[in-house]
Please model this.
Amino acid sequence: MESNIIKENDFIFLVLDDRRRWLVQVKKGEEFHTHKGIISHSDLIGKAFGTCIFSKPHESQGYKFYILKPYPSDFILHMARKTQIIYPKDAGIILLHTGIGPGCKVIEAGCGSGALTCILGNYVRPNGHIFSYDIREKSLKQATKNIKKANLNDYVSINYGNILEDDLNHKNIDAIVLDMPTPWLAIEKVKKYLKLSGSIVSFSPTIEQVKKTTFEMEKNDFFEIISVELLIREMQIKENATRPNTRMIGHSGYLTFGRKIENKKNPYRGIKPRKKEFINLDGMPLRDIDDNEK
Ligand SMILES: C[S@@+](CC[C@H](N)C(=O)[O-])C[C@H]1O[C@@H](n2cnc3c(N)ncnc32)[C@H](O)[C@@H]1O
Model:
């Protein structure tokens, strides 16, 4: 079982209140400065996740900070970013609806800031791998930094690669994740990397992209093609005033899923049914052989 005690290099989620919360990597001798005082990293080491600590100097500041173990969603929302990132709700259904889990080999394009890459890398441990590609230098640099920070170097490779043009030389891949402007142009090209029954998922902000991607999946014999949109409404819980919050994220994007299958023509179609035969079973009345029983 994973230890609940904070060690050097662990990530903690330092929470002051609803808005002020930080993802911090614990380094002996370092300090975390906020406008509500200073937290010394050495004071965190040896404490249990879930406890609290007071900022220094105690006389003038002494604010209470909670120390939580970060969830994957905390990494996504609090990591440094250069691009629009995938929201935790969308990352969640990507994992569940593609079967990405321990041991899976996955291709991702583009890596962007590496937010989704971190989630995928975390879930394929201990013996799977994410091969993530992008064409922008800025994205490659930012994603590489975030992957290193999340300690996922052994499970993720970030490389320059144009998913539309380059031959990426993969086979037997379990899943392909596309978050890029023109996913439909990649479908035919990436199909050969996938193993049979492997899945492809594309994240797109507009319906125009979804339609083109769906038609291209159909053209390439993908199976179980569906598109979904997820909306999350947080609840305001108050005595006599419990209802959805006034504000919410109205739209992030649509997800289109499909699976690679073998598509053969039905060899039994078009064969003329044989003439009706009569059989005589001992003691049984003569009967017709039904077409379905042949
Ligand atoms: C919205 S970002 C991806 C964000 C990422 N999913 C995340 O959670 O951080 C889209 C990325 O796709 C990359 N991209 C666009 N066309 C590409 C292509 N043909 N091959 C690989 N990457 C591409 C862009 O450079 C950009 O970094």
Notes: The mean pLDDT is 91. The CA atoms of residues 53 and 194 lie 49 Å apart. The chain has two domains: 11-70, 73-260. The domain at 73-260 is CATH 3.40.50.150 (Rossmann fold).
